[in-house]
Specification:
By secondary structure, the protein is mainly alpha-helical. It contains 8 helices and 2 strands. The relative contact order is 0.08. The C terminus is likely disordered.
């Protein structure tokens, strides 16, 4: 397998530390044990894939299965199987697409909506406990910077665009 050429300009120490911290956060939050504790606190018996799918639908429902697969960056067949399981368990339902009578949209049932809300509440409470020593101003700054970072990540597409060029093209 060919390897990509290494960049010739070094990455700033601050950017390297941000990448390192994000890697640690992803590792800590994606561990099976962490997921199991969160599900126990929320009282919801779902695996990580199901939770990711339900969260996406919660934030943007109703969705076509193809759109859901694109948002999750997975194959459509994976979404179809997961949706079928969650529908059988009562978390999801299918409704006709008003723009195309042949298509269906996926949306949460009240059980699905309640599950996502309980999971998010349990996660927020854990985060609040972990950050209890932080001042309100520090929490506000972190939230602002995280949102800014996510927005910049979304504006940057596979090395094609920097946040600055995205801003310039949006303004022009």
């Amino acid at each position: 397998m060919p390897t990509a050429p290494r960049p010739t300009t070094p990455v700033s120490t601050d950017v390297a530390e941000i990448e390192r911290a994000l890697s640690r956060i992803v590792y800590l939050t994606s561990r099976v044990r962490q997921h199991d504790r969160l599900m126990a606190r929320a009282g919801v018996p779902l695996d990580r894939a199901a939770v990711a799918l339900l969260r996406q639908i919660y934030d943007a429902e109703p969705l076509r299965p193809s759109e859901l697969a694109a948002r999750l960056a997975v194959e459509a067949s994976h979404v179809t199987r997961q949706v079928q399981q969650l529908q059988k368990a009562g978390y999801l339902t299918r409704v006709p697409d008003p723009d195309d009578r042949r298509a269906q949209l996926i949306q949460l049932t009240s059980l699905g909506r309640d599950a996502v809300e309980r999971i998010r509440d349990a996660g927020r409470r854990s985060m609040e406990a972990a950050l209890a020593a932080w001042s309100p101003e520090e929490l506000r700054q972190l939230a602002t910077l995280f949102h800014r970072m996510v927005d910049d990540f979304l504006a940057y597409k596979d090395g094609e665009e920097t946040p600055e060029s995205a801003e310039a093209s949006a303004a022009g």
